[in-house]
Amino acid sequence: MAQVTFKNLQKRYGQTEVVKSFDLEIKDGEFVVLLGPSGCGKSTTLRMLAGLEEISGGEIYIGDTLVNDLHPIERNIAMVFQSYALYPHMTVRENIAFSLKIGRVDKALIEERVKYASDMLELTPLLDRKPKALSGGQRQRVAMGRAMVRTPEVFLFDEPLSNLDAKLRGQMRAEIKALHQKLGTTTIYVTHDQVEAMTLADRIVILNGGIIEQIGTPKQIFEKPNNRFVASFIGSPEMNQLSAELTSSQQIALGNQSISTKAQFSCSETHCNFGIRPSDLHLQESSVDAPTVHSLEALLNSQELLGSTYHLHCTIGDDRFVAEVATSEHLNTKEGETLRLYFDEDRMHLFDHQDKVILAQA
Amino acid sequence: MHNKLSKSHITAYICIAFGAVIMLAPFYFMFVYATHDNSSILSVPPPMFFGDALAENFAILIERLPYFWHNLGLSFFVAIAVTIANLLLCSMAGYAFAIFEFRFKEVLFAMVMATLMLPPFLGMIPTTMIMSAIGWMNDPKALIIPAACGAMGIFLMRQYISSAIPRELVEAARMDGCSEFGIYWRVIVPLITPAVGTLGLITFIGSWNNFMQPLVVMNDMKMFTIPLALRALQGTGQVPWGAISAGAAIAVLPLLILFIITSRQLIAGLTAGAVKG
């Protein structure tokens, strides 16, 4: 096990900068998820750490060792690929044992490690099968077994669940989590799926266009996004963003409605964006368990029943937004009617003209 | 509908049968003539069925070509050496072109492909001059080394590898600690056997049947390959057609056996690259 440090890491393809000044310290045994839309540089960062991609600038340390120019095998890391990359001509046993065989490990020890991994991953009955005779989930487990037997210092996962169906994905997510808890190996996991990131990570690193937008625990990222990108990227349905004016440090105008906040906000420009998560909007004041409750009037355009919740599609002026309310809370409001939505002041977010969050001063 | 379908089927069968007859007739008559003496072969109409002069024809063949078995052995040696060399070098080159990124990759590959545009005869004279200059005339090396690697083989291997081998597999092997040659040998080679089989067959047949290159670099009758040796029978005096046919039948036999064993794989290999996603 080891800590991993990225210092001013950069990657360029010709003139195109894919990763720009990436700085991150990952603690020993930590599970870190790199999350972002496709093309944000998350896989490239992982591949640079693995040694599969050359580094254009900066430094990567595993433990205290600078690994920039080390061959992948010298970095003592193992990687699970998106396509699993199992050797089709080898049995499950041979696949798992391959790296040990290459490393000329003693046969008895290979046998022991393969047994340990296959028992832990429930692969023992499948050891003599070829990959084509396995299901997607089983292949995924073989790929993990192959990474495990090497007892690496760092585990890398490159979108390992994206080829599985939704049900299996949930199951494998739990297995990866359990494996990490058992082995305690430092793990870096790349995905574009926010559910995977939220459920697996100790810390999430949100990437966009080759730069880090925010680093934090899943709770911090969800509740205190640094900017509009993070706010809208995490959460489903995504955070509502309405254009607003900061008329004074404690007064926000949304269309012709105004909210007087307890907290003070300061911003050089008056124009800002008001953000609130759909699940933080309520139809009854009593549902909001907070000292400072505000409300807004909105026009209900349409509504969708999703079972335990309703999605209410509303407008204030020209801005559209969604409120997610419990079915039990629903007041039989009809489309075209005006309704009042309540929210906790602590749950609202304000973003300035550069899309950065405006922090409240108590 | 059914009627129309069977009609088109019949037409297709007739066309295929006609083609088969045209393709097979020379083989059939080669075997038939191997069993007839010259006067019978040259009579009108020529013989259509097997005769009884096979042993006699063999005797003439061995008498006129005292090194016949040596020639046959040499042909085998050259064909096998050329095949092994091609399989190794073309698969390595194809692998490099398919998987690696290196400077001038596209230019180099274009140059390799451009050699296909040159008529083979154009290279014959320079090759012969080089062989002569380095003292390889009448040496099997002069047939093996220049033919050890070809653009067609490299192209076939590159196409097959880039369609059948995902890049992640190579990267996984690299992370597992394989050397670059280890990746090629332990991961790539086992996965490209269909293409290896196809290229092996094509190369073996091509080398076995090669006539022009041996003609210019082999002067000593002992060092003739089979096509050249059989051609030598037509040189002077009365041409012993029966003996030539008997020799040709023996020369063709290894190819026929090889083809019967591997035809399924040959056809599968030729089409495999095309349909793999």
Summarize this structure as a short list of keywords or feature phrases:
heterodimer; A: alpha+beta; Rossmann fold; OB fold (Dihydrolipoamide Acetyltransferase, E2P); 2 domains; 5-stranded antiparallel β-sheet; 8 helices; 35% strand; B: 277 residues; mainly alpha; MetI-like fold; 0% strand; MetI-like (chain B); transmembrane (chain B); transmembrane helix (chain B)
Please explain how this structure is put together.
- The complex is a heterodimer of chains A (362) and B (277).
- Chain A has 362 residues and is of the alpha+beta class.
- Chain A folds into two domains: 4-231, Rossmann fold, CATH 3.40.50.300; 241-361, Nucleic acid-binding proteins (OB fold (Dihydrolipoamide Acetyltransferase, E2P), Beta Barrel).
- In chain A, 23% of the residues lie in helices and 35% in strands.
- Chain A has eight helices and 21 strands.
- In chain A, the strands form five sheets. In chain A, strands 6-7-8-3-9-10 form a six-stranded mixed β-sheet, sandwiched between helices. Chain A has a five-stranded antiparallel β-sheet with strand order 13-12-11-15-20.
- In chain A, helix 2 (92-102) packs parallel to helix 4.
- The longest helix of chain A has 18 residues, at 166-183.
- Chain A is elongated.
- With 277 residues, chain B is mainly α.
- Chain B has a domain at 65-232: MetI-like (MetI-like fold), CATH 1.10.3720.10.
- Chain B has 14 helices and no strands.
- In chain B, helix 4 (68-99) crosses helix 8 (151-164), helix 11 packs antiparallel against helix 14 (241-275) and helix 13 packs antiparallel against helix 14.
- Chain B is globular.
- The model of chain B is unreliable at 273-277 (pLDDT under 50).
- Chains A and B meet through strand 6 and helix 2 of A and helix 9 and helix 10 of B.
- Chain A: It comes from Alginatibacterium sediminis.
